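Same chain as my last thread, 90 residues:
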Amino acid sequence: MTKRTKSMRAKGKISLSKYFQEFGGGESVAIVRDKAVRSSFPERLQGRTGVIEGKRGKFYLVKLSDINKEKTYIIQPVHLKKIEVQEKAK
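reply #2:
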């Protein structure tokens, strides 16, 4: 189950720096849904990781592997969080 509320200090606020953050192509991101901003992407995407393919207007194209298929979703930058990917050592 996911946490449905924000902390008391963050409640109702939309961070402008998070809203206007920039990503480059090929960067890895995690999808962290912000409940303060209205969005229509499926709830099953919460917590998944993907790769930025490009930009469409203010939104980003995020490529995810959904079971056995590669799918592309259009997501606002508010719901994305940049992550560092560690490569496997052989």
